[in-house]
Each structure stands twice: as structure tokens, then as C-alpha cells.
Amino acid sequence: MHFDLLISGGTVVDGTGAPGRRADVGINGKEIAALDDLSEATATRVIDATGLTVTPGFIDVHAHSDGALLADGQHANGIRQGITTEIIAPDGLTLAPLSVENYRMYRWYLSGILGLPPENLDMSSIAAARSNYHHKTSCNVATFAGHGPVRLEAVGFEDVPLTGSALDRAKGVLSDALEQGACGFATGLSYYPQSYSTTDEMVELCKVAAEFDRPLSIHLRNHNVDRAPTGGGVEEAIEIGKQSGVKVHLEHYRTQPGSEGDLEAILAPVDRAKSEGVDITLETYPYPVGSSFPQSFFPGWVHEGGPEKLLERLSDRSLRPQIVEEMSRVLYGRPAGNVWSWIGPEGDESLAGMLFDDLAASRESSVPDLVCDLMVESNLACGFRGAPPHSTRVWRQIEEDVMELLARPDYMIGSDAIPVGQQPHPRAYGCFPRVVGRLRRRYRYLLEQVVQRVTQNPAERFGLDRRGVLKPGNFADIVVFDADRINDRSSFEDPAVFPEGIPHVVVNGQVAVDHERLTGVLAGEAVP
Ligand SMILES: [Zn+2]
Question: Do 58-289+410-454 and 1-56+470-485+501-518 fall under one CATH topology?
Fold first, then answer.
């Protein structure tokens, strides 16, 4: 027997949750050809995995890499973690399908979260977008159909209801996207234009996703809560599932500083709905605070018309008191306590890493004013992340909660990585090794179980055929790591640091990471 690639001598943890066992993996072309004792076989290339663990490549179900992958397909921060498939467009914050004008406009609007990908790309359909990633990235890329583009293509960046012919247009855009391979429908109801929607609109759109048997990935509503009879939150997501029949996937669903330790409170409504027949899965990332872009602080009218209008309003001193006052009225509108994760080339890039409050004080400004000013100075290309809680106890409790959640068979990991800027959230470089290494060992979870949650689970949920499990006939997406040593090294202090203990990563049978070094191979495909 001869193979193109042979991974020999390792312990195979195949992704199904079955106990690890000594086995060699023989690969021909893109596929796993044999998984057995292959000590008699020859191979063009052998990876010696003696003493190491061999698992399916990790699947990230929530990656804001849409722009980063277009700007640099090597994508070192992801592939070095062992992530072989990323699902982009979570929250519906994405760049396709968009007409030429809408692409330019939304690229600008989203630059705080997606960075600055090339300006002249054909992103007019999901098919076109897929070809911009296919064989141009180190990892496989799956994409959601995003609520943002669906709305923009139907009615532009306007706060108008999607009804009648506008709703028909939106449904057409969504249906085409799913037809062309989008792996689900995603929305973020604290972002725009998504938050202009009502629950009824969500139900109508989700009926289309349900027809394709694709899930809704949802960031729960905290804007325009009066547009949901439930007042938004998890109850709205459940209601959408009940009324439309769509499978529901809850994004970054975990406890937070203030609710740490109280899993019962967040899980009770989920388990109740599941017992009533709603099909729900969930994801989380293993850090106590998040990251986003400042657009999430403002009420709907400030964004109306798109980025040009947004900048006009933020620059207008006469509107400032009203904007600041409306921000202060809602919890999600209060920006104090965050850190700039990135300031684009038109702003003062050296300000990245600074606490909002410190910078506001040094400018003798208020925090909300500072946020408005920096958005103007950077031409909207700026983003932020949380600062970790002062209390180590709170931090540790949330980590413990995350691992307990991940013990549930309906959970998976979504890094929520935002791999742009000078001071990104450390999850962009360390999410998966943190879970599979540090936290698994700290809280003593079974390796096989943790691996199942980041491989088979997401592959099944999002229809990534022949991925997520190591077996003959499946695609050879494989990560080889040292189970005792795999660890994140990215921190809030020093976030852009690669992990350790992950010497080899294989994507579609090609070696993407070899002895912890990028090979330069771009074997990633548009999937499923
Ligand atoms: Zn997100």
C-alpha cells in the first residue's frame, strides 16, 4: 500500500466521542484512504505522530474572518490553532450577496469588524463569494447567508418593514444564497440593518431557511426590543423557531460577569423549548468578555442611510447630546470599560490597546463622545474588545461555566474571532487550544468529548458533509497535537501570539502547518 501522506504512530481521536486508539492515517489526494495499523505501508510523505493525538480539524462556527481571509488567505491566526473550517458571516455581518454599490457601502460600514478587504471584488452572489475563497485560503470556508445583505439588497440601509414585495425580494435573495451553498441563515439583532426587523420578519425569512433545512444562527436582540412581542432575548429566538419551524442555533450563549455560576437561569428556557420540540444548538467561546465594533452602541436612526449618513450624524455637534443621551438609556449603549482593539490607517493607530476611559480622560472628553470622535477620525475603521473582569474568581467561574456547557451534547465552540487590528481579542489566536488544552485539563474533561464538540457536532449541525470525523472516505482535515502541551498563549495583554503544542495541520490532504510553521499551501475549499 502506498499513500500520498501517512500520519503514523499517533493516538486517533476520531471526532465521534469514541475512545482514542493507536492507529495510522493513510491519505490519498484529498481523502482519508485508510485508518488502521499501516506499518507495512509506504508513503510519499510521513508525519511521525508518535506520542501525539490525531483528530479531525477543528470547526469554528462563528468567525468574523470574512474580510481577513480575503486580505490574507494564509490566515495564520486560525490555521495555527488547528481550525480547518471556519463558518463566516455570523450575526449576518457579511459582504455577500451584495451588488457592487452595496458591497462598497457595507464594506465601509463593517470595516470596524471585518477590516479592509479588497475594494473591487465580485461579491454579487454567494457563488461569486465562494469563488473568492475557494483554493485561496489555508482553511475551508463555509458561509451563512447574512441578514444584513438580505435586507440591503431588498430595501437598502433603511428602517422600513419588510412586507409585501420587499419581503418577497428579501426571500428571493435568501433563497438564492441557500441554493448556492450557504450553510444557514445568520442574524445579529444588536447590529444594523438587522435590528430594523421585527419578529414577524424573522419568522417569514426563517421559513425559507427551514425549507432548505438550514439553521438560523442568531445573536439575540438587544436593539429595538419593542419590535419583538417577547421583548427580544432567547424567548424571541425560540418563538422564531416555533413559528417558522427553523432549527435554531444560539450564538455565544453563556453566563457573563454578574450571572457567573448561574447556568440554570440561561438553560431553563432552552431546555423548556427543546422539550416542546424546538431544535436548538448552542455555541460559546471560553473568555469572560467579548469584542465588537462601536456601531453596536447606537440606536437605529443614527445608522439610517448607511455609513455616509452615520458619519455625518456623528460629526454633527448639534446631534451629539441626543445621541449620547439615547446611548445612556440602554445597557448595551454604554461603552465605558472597553479597550480599542483596532484603529484603521486613517486614524491614530497608536491608540489601539487603550482603555476608552483613559483616552477620554486624557482628551478631557466623555467616553461616549470619545467613541463618536474616534469613529469619525478613523473613518469607521475601528473596533473594541472588553477588558477582563477585575475579579479572578468571576473569570474562573465563567470558564468553568463554559466547560460545563460544553459537556452538553448540543454545544459547540464559536470563537467569535475578529482577526483585525493591532490589539485583537485573544480569542482570535487562542480560542480552540484554550478549550482543547488549558481548560480541558484544568477542569478535567474527557479529551474525546471535547474533540467531538469542536468537530463532529458542528459538521452535523451545519451540513459539512464528510468532515468532522476521521474515517475512510472523509476529507483529510486533520490536526496533530500534543494533548499534554496544547495551549493558547494569546492574552488580553499580548493577544496576537500563536498557540503551542500543535505541530501539524492538514487541510484536504495538504499540509498547511508543518512543525508549527505555515507551508504557504492554500488548499481550503468553499464548503459544503
Ligand atoms: Zn460575533
Answer: no
